[in-house]
Amino acid sequence: MKTIPAAHIALTLLACMTSVAVAQSSVDWQAVKRIKPSERIRVEGWTCTQCYFESATDGALTCFRDRRGLWEVALRPVSRVVFARSDVRAVELDRDDDSAGFRSLILAAGGGGGWDFSKAPTAFGGVKIGGPVTLNLGYDRLQGHSGFSTEGTLVLPLFRVPRFRRYVLPGAVQNANERFVRLYAEPGLGYRAGGGDFGGYTSAGMLLLLFPDDRTQPFVEVQRRFPFDGPLDGDTRISVGVMTSLCWHCGWE
Q1: Pairwise pLDDT comparison (175 vs 121), residue with the higher score
Q2: Structural domain boundaries, residue 19
Q3: For 119-123, 158-162, 237-241, which range has the lowest pLDDT when averaged over its residues?
């Protein structure tokens, strides 16, 4: 029976210990502590585990196996996983592409101005609520007349800059969605009532979403409205505002 030299075994163990130490030294543990609660992460130790961050101390990282609402926690116990710091080789954020479209429910408010078919200045203010399909309620001034409009629009994502990265580099905790802009197309159908001759109309718009890593995002919107009874007699408006996510997934993963 062939035996393995003791020196060979010692060298192999030393190599393993060295590789683990090098991997461990690349983890920014202070950045791990700053991860937001309930953030989905990928922990690389002796195996790779996907879970939801709870907390980190100087000696350990704790996360949940799955994400649940308060009513679910009351019905069944929370399943936690605890990783000793010495066993953690890398921690990565594992995120859905939040920029691909709106979450389940958003609320936005904005205002601005523009010009009508005769190049006269106009003013506008409004709110929108929805997701991939939004309901827009607005007040405007056209030709010195006040009016109110109700409009439904589709929100179709075109592209984002920079492109989304699902994972960050091993050993470094960074925000894969930290800062980006996303452009959407907004075809719509609406009705304007009030002073002036407008009525039903179609619309075409572009929405530029300046999307930081939180629930509130500033936006810039450009829109052209085309009245049914005179498509060339519409108006063009530019508005700026703030959009907030009322819920992300609304409880569904």
Answers
A1: 121
A2: 6-94
A3: 158-162
